[in-house]
Amino acid sequence: MIEGFENLSENQFTTLKKSVSWITVLIAGADGSIDESETEWAKKLTEIRGYANPSLLNAFYDEVGKNFSEELKSLMDHVPFDTKDRTQLLTRKLEELNAILPLLDNRFALELYFSLKSFAKHVAKSTGGFLGFFSINKEEAKLIELPMITPIELAEEEE
User: Fold this and answer.
1) Considering the entire predicted model, what is its pTM?
2) HSE (CB half, 13 Å, CA atoms) of 64?
């Protein structure tokens, strides 16, 4: 198990890794169709975050990137074609993080939570718009804050 995730079972860690694919398909498909440029950007983003992320999460994204393309393809092959059904399924999957994130060190969980939200925003911005403006459509805007995941707040330091 990589550093920072020692408190998790293998299944919980796998769920965290899969959440990056779930977010990709949720956001990319929010408008009804999954654009290849969105999934390609998500693949690149996992690679970039494996080395250019805050050091706490480098190993996590490095691990995610090892089989991200295969995971993403498999997910896209198995999720419902209907946008509403797909969104509902992926929302339920992402809700699983609500039981996992609190098991991590608070600062680590907070960093991961904000990183996942940032990832969602980057996927949404990867296509559409004019010169990068207005690239997030109405459907994506409802989801990029990942409202199905309970926000992580910084715990007060105990004295």
Assistant:
1) 0.88
2) 30
